[in-house]
Design a protein that fits this description.
Strand content: under 5%
Order of helices and strands: HHHHHHHHHHHHHHH
Structural class: mainly alpha
Shape: globular
Helix content: over 70%
Largest sheet: none
Distance between the termini: 27 Å
Number of strands: 0
Number of helices: 15
Radius of gyration: 21 Å
Oligomer: single chain
Length: about 425
Amino acid sequence: MAVKNYVNKLLKSEYLSNISIQVFGTGLAQLIPLLIMPFLSRVYAEQDFAMYTSFMAVVSVLSVAVGARYQYAIVLPKDDKEGQNIFILSIFSTLFYCAIIATIILPIFKIFSGGLDNIKWHSILIPLYILLYGIWLSLINLSIRYKKFKVNAFAKITQAVGNSISSLGLGLANISIGLIIGKILGVLGPLFFLTKKMTLKNLKINVPDLKHVAKKYKDFPLYTIFPSFLDTASLQAPIFLIGKYYTEQELGFYGLTFMAIAGPLSILGVSFKDVFYQKITEMYNNKEYLKVKKIFKSSALSLLLIGIPILVVLAIFGEPLFKFVFGSNWGESGKYASILAASFIIKLVVSPLAVIFNVINKLKTLFMWQTIYFITTFSTLLLSVIVYKVSIVTLLKIYLIHELLLYALYFILQYAAIKKLK
């Protein structure tokens, strides 16, 4: 009876309504690429997917510091003017950072990383994509601040449509880097849309105000960039290692698995996180700690209920499903999806809830886990590849066990942090 009443209250809440908008928008945004992917898998070769996978892995790592991460503070202030100043600061920081990437970071990255082996000269597109992505991220967080979740959701749908149509058209034109260019073109439409909907013409640039918020929220660049870099590098570790120690074809198979499963699930999690972040920040600022705990639990349960059917389907039907949908030559990608299904789902449940550390200012706990995750991920995978020289299937099974253990620890730390709120 208690569970029934709890579910009924949840169904009637504004929180669930906002989540429903986000999930619907994200679901539609992901449905479009998934409908296009069977065509993409037939017009692009495994090597093209390998190139795209390497490109996105490098972009993910370098994007960690975009905007000096000030965009994640846009939601926090009670005062709208302060939130707007943080938004402006994040845009200027994005422009400056992308200039540094193009002139300094990327050349160094090329020297010390094998992650660019499959990208070749196309690495010149990296700063451009990060610039567009950084501006997009700031606009998305501004929309969250103003609770414009419908605008947020529509922007993601627009991005998906632009990306899918561009990638398919370029693939039919036999342009091997079409997946990369399509990704870049997909961001442009939503940027114009969000810019119009956020009424940015009313923003005023005041240097003293920018200095004030830069100093007030300095913890975001000082204490979240390095931990987030560790976290992102850990998540991309399989791609870098597969690209370096296995064949380009195997990297292409893994790339399709990521595009079809991990990518959509991560975006679904981000959309859930967007609403969760805004709501839990509001409750915490109002010192409604009991509600914070309830929202945390209900969010974890909701994400788990979303993930379980996906887990069952992938674990049982992964290989034949991929062959049927993407073509007979992509069965190996389905095998990878079956192996990694549980890791995809535990990340879907746990990752969106991690913003609780930002809200309650437990960044040291977050940093501790990210450090442990980084060390154990690379040590486990490198040991498996270099010392034991395992096959890619065995490597993915080892990676699965590692992810389940580390993300279980992640959730325990999150729950322990909110349990102390009084």
